[in-house]
Amino acid sequence: MRQLAKAYQQVGDSIEVVCLDPPDAPFIGNVPCPVHALGQRWVGRYSLSPRLFTWLRQNIRRFDGIVMQGIWTFPGVPVRRVARRAGKPYCVFTHGAVDPWFNRKYPLKHLKKILYWPIQYSVLRDACAVLFTTALERDLALTSFKPNRWNSIPIPYGIIEPGGDPAVQG
Q: What pLDDT is recorded for position 162?
């Protein structure tokens, strides 16, 4: 997120981050944009957080849109619901999470994801765009689950090269 925030600044734009990390997490202080760390309630690793619904409802009008990073957890549910009600576009960056390799490598997780798919699918289907880093990643994602109709866009995840000592970069 540090590098992404810097890249946005370089092109004259800005972002804010809302996350479910603890507000006192040490890595949050070094992010060069506002970070709203709401803390987290866990239901397994699902990341259930009613505070996220509240924060999104109170703040969504300040933003042009939302880019959600990752899938398979609770944040997709409030992002979809609140963005749709506010008439704001949202995108989902899957970061490889619907690659069929995971289904073969982790068959028990795949069964759990099949049960969760109706909810996850609605998040992807209703997104303005589902973002993939390559056309191959986009095409492979279509083989993982059915139904699979969403607006796919391959978009390179290019960010600035980190500077400084690699040993101290987080």
A: 61
Q: Does residue 125 fall inside a structural domain?
A: yes
**Nearest to 84, CA basis, from 69, 58, 72, 66:** 66
Which residues in the chain show pLDDT less than 70? 41-46, 158-164, 166-170
Contact 121, 146 (CB under 8 A): no
Could you list the residue range(s) of the whole structural domain that residue 135 is in?
64-158
Return the residue matching tokens 């690659």.
99
Q: Please write the tens of the pLDDT for every residue from 60-92.
A: 999 999 999 999 888 999 999 999 999 999 999
DSSP letters for 13-61: ----EEE-S-TT-GGGGG-SS-EEE-----STTS---HHHHHHHHHHGG
| Predicted structure pTM score | 0.85
Q: Is residue 120 part of a domain?
A: yes
- Domain-embedded: residue 98: yes
- Does residue 105 fall inside a structural domain? yes
Alpha-carbon distance of 74 to 100, in angstroms, equals 21
Instruction: Tally the domains of the chain.
Output: 1
**Residue 165 contacts by C-beta under 8 Å, 6 or more apart in sequence?**
none
Residue 154, strand partner residues: 132
